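$ run holo --ligand "cytidine-5'-monophosphate" --emit tokens
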Amino acid sequence: MTLAGKRVLLIVSGGIAAYKALELIRLLTKAGCGVRCVLTKAGAQFVTPLSLQALSGEKVYTDLFSLTDESEMGHIELSRAADLVVVAPASADILAKMAAGLADDLATTLLLATDKPVLAAPAMNVRMWQHAATQANLETLAKRGVVIVPPDEGPMACGEYGPGRLAEPPVILGAIARALGAGGPLAGKHVIVTSGPTHEPIDPVRYLGNRSSGKQGHAIAAALAGLGARVTLVSGPVTLSDPFGVKTVHVETAIEMLNAVKAALPADAAICAAAVADWRVAMQADQKIKKTGDAPPALTLTENPDILHMLAAPGPQRPRLVVGFAAETEHLFTHAAAKRARKNCDWIVANNVGGTGIMGGDMNEITLITEAGADVWPLMGKQDVAIKLAALIAQEVS
Ligand code: C5P
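-- output --
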């Protein structure tokens, strides 16, 4: 990631998602970007200035009328010294103040005084997000050129469900890189990612499916976009939002997924993280199959096309790097290594799905199998797996 020498002024406003700002600072500093933080009064209810300071390595600013701060660096200078002003998380309140041009604390004063581009990653309760006032404020800000990184959809800390969760830090990082015109190591490269399950219809109301959530595939797509790649994500039915900055094609069945992948070629790399159904029902019923009181209907299955195998077959359209996944419940290495050979792919990301909570959960236990052998990764969050894998992909294809 080529953010070296760039400077971000990060405004952390109030909300439970403020803890994710810490991860964002870690990613930015790792990418070589200088980060100076401003913490609002509400933000300080959720994270401390000390943690922001420890991670950014710079003084954290909180007060508009601090004599010491003003003598060291005036509040106008604070925003002008940055290449980009980032508000993450951006609460409904700070967005409203930005839209109205209010300046009643250090953060809002900086936002009104800055001559630099501004990016905001909102996070709030779903009803606050959907409120006409918030939507109108977002429209006003977008018209003024503020880059909005939309929130994700999912379960919220308040117990409700819907859009409002802060976008994942790698996604915000990608948006920051684009806003700063930093290409990233995968700039100019096209990567296809498959993700989620497929649903194979039995009749118009029933289907065969599996427990894949798409979390790992979607996180990989977002992390690759964060490194500057043009990403086509071909996603089966999932409840996740489309990752920001990624072209997402929605499909239901394996055959639709295959067609969407073929249409997206050529690509520099293909990552097949989808849990494609191995079989589909040979004769899909046109009408709902009724209970007759006789024996239950027998389903005859037929094999689905293997998308990974098609992508990895030698030929002019073969991406330079083809990565498959192997979800195994036993003999992880032997089965995954055999799969790598059988499918002709370059790498296999093998994961042990025998433990409870891996499939559909937030953690993953990976063994990466390449020509060089097997690399066992510790148990990690799916976001971290995505970041690590995307960095390795960038090394391989850039
Ligand atoms: O053969 P198996 O389903 O165990 O292999 C898993 C790998 O193959 C995953 O990368 C998956 O995305 C891919 N796959 C595919 N098309 C299929 C079946 C699996 O792309 N029909």
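-- notes --
DSSP finds 14 helices and 21 strands in the chain.
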